[in-house]
Amino acid sequence: MTHRSVFVTCLTFAAAAVAPRPAAAESGAAFASQVKPFLAAHCVDCHGEDVAKAGLRLDNLPADFGDERTAATWATVFDKLSSGTMPPKSEPRPPKPAVDAATQFLGQHLHAASLARQQEQGRVIVRRLNGTEYQNTIHDLLNVRVPLKDMLPEDGAAAGFDNVSSALDLSATHLLLYQQAAEKAINAAIPVHPPVKFSDRRTGREITAKGPNFKQTLTRSAKLEGDALILYSQAPRYGLCSTTSVPTAGRYRVQMSACAVGAGVKAIPVGLCTIGQGREGPVVFDVRDIPAGKPAVIEFEVDLNRSQGFVVNLLTHWDIRTFKKPLDEYTGPGLLVEWLSIEGPVDAFPPPSYDRLFAGVPLKAKSVAAAEAGGRPARPVADNRTIANWYADPLTPVSAKPKEDAERLIRDFLPRAFRRPVNEELQKHFVRRVHEKLDQKFAFVDAMTYGYKSILASAHFLLLVEPGAPAGADKMRLDDYALASRLSYFLWSTAPDDALLALAARNELSRPDVLRAQVERLLADPKARRFTENFTGQWLDLRKIDATIPDPQLYGDFDPLLLWAMPRETRLFFDEILRHDRSLLEFVHSDWTILNARLARLYGIPGVEGNAFRKVALPPDSHRGGVMTQASVCKVTADGTRTSPVLRGKWVLEKILGTPPAPPPADVPAIEPDIRGATTIRQQLDKHRNTPACATCHVHIDPPGFALETFDPIGNWRDFYRASARTKAGVVTLPNYTGSKAIFRGPDVEKGFTTPDGRAFADVDAYKRILLENPDQIARNLTQKLLTYATGADVQFADREVVEQIVARLRAGRYGLRTLVHEVVQSRPFTHK
Prior knowledge:
This protein is an alpha+beta fold. The protein is built from 31 helices and 17 strands. Strands 1, 2, 3, 4, 7 and 9 form a 6-stranded antiparallel β-sheet that branches. Helix 7 packs across helix 15, helix 13 packs parallel to helix 15 and helix 14 packs antiparallel against helix 15.
């Protein structure tokens, strides 16, 4: 079978799986007696021939639960009836026995039809690796770290996640870009030259002489003290306290002699950054506390691409612009840098990445290889060649027995790339493609690159095809290799490692005890950080943390250090709950969080010093606890200047409760708060709710939205809105504010609201207590989200039974998050196609 035919077969199989099914025979008498009269009495007036609200007609909807579209409509009817949201409260309530009879019939038939589809087709037929998974898989397979995700088309999302099969299309453009990305990664695995020692050391004075814009910097925000440089403000604004750019990619060792200075200063957090030659600013890869006292040497390692350099950067704002005296007399906080050095690369040679692709094949300069191939004397390579010469005449793999080496390398690479044993026919296919290039007089490296590109752009690599178990077993149960991939992509976002594949080879992974032990092993590995980052990044929208920049005029208390700390609190909070199997209800409220000094200052919590994050007990009156009140969530649910109860309310319904509202009507304008005080947001929404098309959703959206209105766009607790224009209330003094513009007091924040069932609450603390009265719904929501993320498919009707079983077990075990992960992995939706 050729590569193309394999690819087409996979896509054809996927397309056939979602084709419409013929209508199944249903119990007409039961439908006619239990459902049809109920619809006629309570639903058809609004969803019939004359009036079809929301485009829904129920008078002629067939009882064909085998058709997926029709079944989806009936599932909506089932949900509306079960939750009591339909018929609307303004209409007479149907008798409970009639509701129970209708929902029982619909539930039984929807479940049976959904389960039958799963047993015939599976929940997920094939799923493409998304951009994150593709990049991680290539990185781990080849041991390279070149950026690849940005080369690929943006992934679609469904059910809140970008790894759901139904949203991951595949086009000719994808295939072209996958080949280009693979070639970039393969090239990165081949060293350009032997180790060439590079080092550079600059004193503070030399940094100012060689760096850009330091003439202006030294008069505004930095000064020299002997040969040492003292920085008082964020470096990128005027200059860069940086090393020179490096001539070749690799891992470098950086040393810096530095200390914090200033009256009463104990330490200063600084950003460790990389920067290229483009216009983009420094990219922070870590933050370190630099202590006060005598300068001390700090050492660390950093991966740099060619022409990148290392930058040390202040991330906090100190308002030195209002300092009227000469800078020599300024006694505020600053960073003193005596010198900065860089040396490397410190990588082994040849690097491990080379052995992943060309183990046993020697490296020679390209000119030498060409001379040898042409039977000419090879020009000797001098040890003192310059970097420029090496790039003009790079190293290349040279094989004395190219066909033998090609076959050996390709056969070794295939099972690692395809995540399972590869049959002889397929091995011969890819070997033959490389041999054909060699017969056409392609250089060995070019023929091998062609072969590796073909493998890394094939359906076997790009798609997670999940065959069932061997004959005689449950045909829809995943075989152990497919289970290894599903588990690894769930918790590591990459291909399974050797330990998982070894268990799969022995058919042991599917044993419940072994599967549980492997979950524990994967969660204990550093790669599990990818699970935290990718899951919370989408569940809680942390990926949007950089989408907006707070208005510097209104929010002068925002700085890059706070931006860096925000998502880390939430990820570390998630990690703490997961690591210790704490209750997932703590995502709604907890009496602790994970803070460093910068976040503690924002939250008004004393006694937290230094940049290191640690678990902190929250004061009872802090209004914090859980994720909804964390600064990261406050920021991603605002636009940088204003907050909206509608956006935040919708976020809570979707992310915490799992009861998302319907999309708003197209002809209804958005609501924006008027912080000038002419009309309050509550008054605007009261008017908005009078629109019949809006009232049904806003009764659910507005309560959580107003509960969170006491938090501004960067996470401060507030009693009033900030205003940049003069107001009657006048100027206000704000803690931590270092902006140069006056801030005026706007209207008071209107606190509290009423839940859909009529319970009033005064603030976010009271609202969280109301949410916690229904712990099963919080657990149900997170169970559904984890099942979706873990399997790459949205929760289907047949899965609801599994979800309820998991929730029941969680309830008995105090709702532990780690317990939930194990329950998901052991569940039928996870272990079956």
